[in-house]
Amino acid sequence: MIKGSFSLFLITMNITLPTPVTPLASTLKSTMIETHGAESLNEPVIFDVSSIEVLKTITNLLKEAQSNSLKVFVAGDYDADGICSTTMMVSLCKSLDLNVGYYIPHRMNEGYGLKPDIAQQALDKGYDLFICVDNGVSAHEAIYLLKRNHKKVIIIDHHIMSEEVEVDAILHPLYLDPVYDSMCTSGLVWLLASYLDLDSDFMIQLAGCATLADMMPLHHLNRYLVVKAIESMNQVMITPFALLLKKQSVNEEDLNFQLIPKINAIGRMSDVANANTMVAYLGSTDITSMVKYASMVEDVNEQRKVLTKSMSLEALSLIEESQPFHFVVSDSFHEGIVGLIANQLLRSQKSNVFVGVKKENTIKGSMRSYNVHLVNLFKPYEHLLMHFGGHAKAAGLEVHQDNFEALKNHILEDLKHHDFSLEVSPSLVLDPSLISLEGVVEFESLRPFGMGWERPIVKIEHVRIKSMMILKAGMSKATVQTSHQTLEIFSFDPSFAQCVVGDYIDVEGTLGINTYMGSKSIQLTLTTFNSCQEA
């Protein structure tokens, strides 16, 4: 029988932010809370999954499938959140002894979401209960087909809905209390697992990883999931993650840079990999096959890195200067990598960007926002689009090539009247006397950092370059002298390496700790710099 269906599940979690003692950490914390409107981080997270009515509805549908030996079909998605939530849902169904199958579509050949042909194939194989995870709110044709065949449909999704969907149950942040706002799909599946008393290290680690991967704001329950996931990993990390991370102790940066890209690579590189195999890997208990698969993931990720580098260079060459929104399109781009290139251009150009690949008659790609709400910006022009979906900060679209220029011109015209100054916070000019190793170490206690709780950009004026070291791939490391101390600066900007020892510059970036052979030092990761006059 299904466990814990109607038990009370009121949880109060004290993961409030510490109160800093040093002037530096106090200044940075107050700046972050004001910038991100994050006053809620000073309060305990309180939630009660037993009060979420739709979880009772979903439980009854699962109970019906259990009692009548119905086949359950999980329709997933190929990004990290989609892969993790599919894995979680399949695991949950297996824990309930349900006959479950799953499918994630081919990114390039089939595209996003449950399509009618996939639904029909599942019908032909005798599936009765359909669960869409990380998709479904825009799968109107497929859902119509399923309902016409008198099948039950559950949607667990967080993407923006353009219209209501007629299904038997929908678990979506739009219909939940504010504490569940902006949760990703894996987080929503974790709610269901908790309601059914099926939470575990496996579930929380997948949910926390996906929350970071989908760049959800680290407020409310999202922060709880990430904090608890990292705590769980540092106690007993699930084997699939351990094989890919190869570290015993991790933080959110390790997940963002060493784990999540590898999971995403399998979905992105759909010409050489299959996202369904990542679901099997994450749910496997066969250590021999897991070790072999982890090695294959490393190989695919290396291919992804090479491809990303070449595409990035081409994309930079296609940038049009002085545009509030860059539209970068090529027929040589790899469809699975356009989102990564959009992320890179967002950071390097500090501008809104669309990166698309020309297909036979269409242009398909990904967008990232620097200072606009993408859904609101593109919604008036839905009539020009074939497909559109996503969030305020990240979205994807497909448009017929005949309509692309009209769409581009509409967006650029609208942005002529947009007040960008309201949406970008200025850097915090920092008094060098505040900076201390003790203060930066205390600042690190405000982790995990991430979307909606980013390290603040600080500006330190009039520092003198003492040394410069050129590293690989255009990176460089400098030692600079402020009026009070010596700092290390790490830069990804090739032009920074052209600075001359003895020059005075103003630098902007994020503060952190560099640990080398047990010794700690203050490091600023550079975002921008400007020359200034000598003292």
Strand and helix layout:
Elements: E1 10-13, H1 23-36, E2 45-48, H2 53-67, E3 71-75, H3 80-95, E4 99-103, H4 116-124, E5 129-133, H5 140-148, E6 152-156, E7 169-171, H6 185-195, H7 201-213, H8 220-233, H9 239-245, H10 252-268, H11 275-282, H12 287-317, E8 325-330, H13 338-349, E9 352-358, E10 362-368, H14 374-378, E11 385-390, E12 394-400, H15 401-415, E13 428-429, H16 437-443, E14 458-470, E15 476-481, E16 486-491, E17 504-516, E18 519-531
Parallel strand pairs: 3-4, 3-5, 5-6, 6-7, 8-9, 13-14, 16-18
Antiparallel strand pairs: 1-2, 9-10, 10-12, 11-12, 14-15, 14-17, 15-16, 17-18
Helix pairs in contact: 1-16, 3-6, 3-7, 3-11, 4-5, 6-7, 7-8, 7-10, 9-12, 10-12, 12-13
Could you walk me through the main structural features you see in this protein, from its secondary elements to its overall organization?
- It is a single chain.
- With 535 residues, the chain is α/β, with parallel strands linked by helices.
- Helix content is 38%, strand content 22%.
- It has a five-stranded parallel β-sheet with strand order 4-3-5-6-7, with helices on both faces.
- A hairpin with a 3-residue loop joins strand 11 and strand 12.
- The longest helix is centred in the middle third of the chain and has 31 residues.
- The N and C termini lie far apart (76 Å).
- 39% of the residues are buried.
- The N terminus is likely disordered.
